[in-house]
Structure formats: C-alpha cells, structure tokens
Design brief:
CATH superfamily: lambda repressor-like DNA-binding domains
Number of strands: 0
CATH topology: 434 Repressor (Amino-terminal Domain)
CATH class: Mainly Alpha
Strand content: under 5%
Structural class: mainly alpha
Distance between the termini: 31 Å
Shape: globular
CATH architecture: Orthogonal Bundle
Radius of gyration: 13 Å
Largest sheet: none
Order of helices and strands: HHHH
Number of domains: 1
C-alpha cells in the first residue's frame, strides 16, 4: 500500500513534524541563516526546506544529518526536548 501524501498524514505525525520544524527554525535563527541559506548549505531545495520547517513535509534521515551539519550542531540538538514543542492534535488525550 502506498504511503499517504505528506499533507494528509495522521494528526499525531503532523504535530511531530510541526515540532521538528519549530526546533529547526529556532536553530536556524540562532545561526543567523535565512531559509534559503540553510537549504543550500544542507543541499536541499528551498521550497522543500520551507515545507519541512513549516511541518508540512517529511525529511529523510540523510537530510536530518545534512541540516545538523549546516547548522553546526550535533544531530541530537535537532531533537532535544522535542516533546515539549509538540502540540496535542486531539486535546484531552494527554
């Protein structure tokens, strides 16, 4: 069975992607990089990167490492305390 397109993913998966995007944006701003600069440095298409940062696109493991390298951080920093950034897609489920 084929995978669902990124924009129709399970609400919990979308919440995780959005949290990852918020972490990515925070690290990008700390590094004083534009979205275009980070995307280019990580070898990504800018439009795709914008979707990742916006929580609308799923990113591969290879690109996660490329993003960490481009930001000059350990890959674990992209996931550090990520659960605190996750917004419950179905209030009352925590």
């Amino acid at each position: 069975m084929p995978e669902a397109p990124d924009d129709t993913a399970d609400p919990a998966l979308l919440a995780r992607r959005q949290a990852f995007g918020r972490r990515l944006k925070d690290l990008r701003l700390r590094a004083r990089l534009s979205q275009a600069q980070l995307a280019e440095s990580a070898g990504m298409n800018r439009v795709f990167y914008v979707g990742v940062e916006g929580g609308r696109r799923n990113v591969s493991l290879d690109k996660v490492f490329a993003l960490a390298d481009a930001l000059g951080v350990d890959v674990g920093e992209l996931f550090h305390d990520l659960n605190s950034l996750i917004t419950d897609p179905q209030p009352g489920n925590r």
